[in-house]
Design brief:
With 185 residues, the protein is mainly β. It has two helices and eight strands, in the order αβββαβββββ. The strands form two sheets. It has a four-stranded antiparallel sheet, with no helix packed on it. A four-stranded antiparallel sheet has the order 5-6-7-8, with no helix packed on it. The termini are far apart.
Length: 185
Amino acid sequence: MTSRTVSLCDLRRLSRWGCAVLLMLLALGQAGPAVAADEPDLIFRRSTVFKWVSPNDKLATYGVDDPEVEGVACHFTVPERGGFKGWLGLAEEVSDISLACRQVAPIRFKNKMEQGDDMFRQRRSLFFKKMQIVRGCDAKRNVLVYMVYSDRLIEGSPKNSTSTVPIMPWGPADANVQKCGEFIQ
């Protein structure tokens, strides 16, 4: 029995167009949204640019709970492209993202974590761009630090936003405040 290497795009079996479609379908299957936390909750959208026939450009505000740190929620606002490309999901979204994170209940760490761990990730274009919210700990000040940025496979993105959450007691019953430095690997 002999073994032979067959490429996905063996031109003897597929036309060039068929090969391109096959590769695109495979890439779409691999390029689904990568999420560290649950899907974000849409809080509201606001139109920013009116379009006559197609959907408007909008700003959308979402909320997401930190999956590893109970008691912390982040809200971020992202622009969403309208037009036909935006409606079909083909438009590349811009990198302007704002972020605010707050303590919303007593803070409890679920597991050990590393500095710069992903808290949330979301695809921002069909193939090459994603938004990430990462988490760190300022152990000296006992403050959680969250940073949102958008990266692109080729050129990256300098646009980012940072928010901090001081770890404080939550009411009189919460006397034992955890130290984030104890949960960093």
